[in-house]
Write a structure and sequence with these properties.
The chain is an alpha+beta fold and about 250 residues long. It has one domain: 3-Layer(aba) Sandwich (NADH Oxidase), CATH 3.40.109. Helix content is about 30%, strand content about 20%. It is built from 9 helices and 8 strands. It has a 6-stranded antiparallel sheet, sandwiched between helices. Strands 1-2 form a two-stranded antiparallel ribbon. A hairpin with a 2-residue loop joins strand 1 and strand 2. Helix 5 runs antiparallel to helix 8 and helix 7 crosses helix 8. It starts with a helix and ends with a strand. The model has no long low-confidence stretch (mean pLDDT about 95). Bound molecules: flavin mononucleotide. Flavin mononucleotide binds next to strand 7. The site of flavin mononucleotide (FMN) has 9 residues, from strand 7.
């Protein structure tokens, strides 16, 4: 569809894609590094209380302990845990007229993010590629062939990913958002994906699992595994999940 291909938001997406053949020769613009913290050394300070640590005792450990983990216990994870992570990431929580609302916010309630799962080690579930059907809260079985090695290779050969029990792959249906918001819609897509991923990471922590978000991948290779066409839908984010190693 030419109208999408001419948009600067879409062009940026294509220009910033990684390809196996060209990644080493990609020119990275020389942009000066800056500090991680913004500091106002001269200003007066207002101390913030930490008394909420006791009041919010359920959520504090989940946020405090979440860490990107790249080693996993080789045990299977339970389907119930995976289902909870999926619900936490994008489950439907309310309906109003023709709108449905979900656990994670979405610009204009358009929900451009789709969820795929490369299942490797989930109890009583065949390894393979699945799609999360949000509407019916079930998984579409796309193939019962294990694709985890292919996914690992497509994620810049980051070897730890092959040890995950599940790798979640999020794609964006670009038109869902850009048909309403134009180029600005591209921003909203990535903001949405951040919300979805963070909810899943917290749910992983809550169920005794670990996860690591991964955004470094060869776009065309991941899209090919998912069987999607980057003109309509393209992978934007992934997360490797596995049972947390006991200390
Ligand atoms: C957008 C994004 C992309 C990331 N991509 C990768 C990746 O490709 N490989 C990886 O090992 N970690 C990746 N990470 C994890 C970061 O390295 C990690 O979040 C960071 O070191 C901070 O550590 P923490 O998550 O434990 O707080 C990514 C994180 C984010 C938010």
């Amino acid at each position: 569809m030419p109208e999408l291909e001419t948009c600067s938001g879409y062009k940026y997406l294509i220009e910033s894609a990684y390809e196996r053949e060209t990644i080493k020769s990609m020119v990275r613009p020389a942009i000066a590094q800056v500090d991680t913290f913004k500091r106002y050394p001269e200003t007066e300070k207002l101390e913030l209380p930490r008394s909420w640590q006791l009041k919010e005792a359920r959520i504090v450990p989940l946020l405090q302990n979440r860490r990107s983990k790249r080693t996993f216990d080789p045990k299977v994870i339970d389907l119930e845990d995976l289902a909870f992570m999926l619900w936490a990431s994008q489950g439907i929580t309310a309906k109003s007229g023709c709108y449905t609302f979900r656990t994670a916010p979405s610009g204009g309630a358009l929900y451009p993010v789709e969820t795929y799962l490369s299942i490797h080690r989930v109890k009583d579930v065949s390894p393979g590629l699945y799609h999360f059907d949000v509407e019916n809260f079930c998984l579409d079985i796309l193939t019962e062939h294990d694709v985890s090695d292919k996914v690992t290779a497509a994620c810049l050969d980051q070897k730890f990913m092959a040890q995950s029990a599940v790798t979640v792959i999020w794609s964006a249906v670009i038109r869902r958002c850009m048909s309403k918001y134009g180029n600005r819609g591209m921003r909203y897509i990535f903001l949405d994906a951040g919300h979805v991923c963070q909810n899943l990471l917290i749910a992983a922590e809550a169920t005794g699992n670990s996860a690591c978000p991964v955004a470094a991948f060869y776009d065309d290779e991941i899209n090919e595994i998912l069987g999607i066409n980057s003109n309509d839908e393209t992978a934007i984010y992934t997360a490797a999940i596995g049972k947390k190693l006991s200390k």
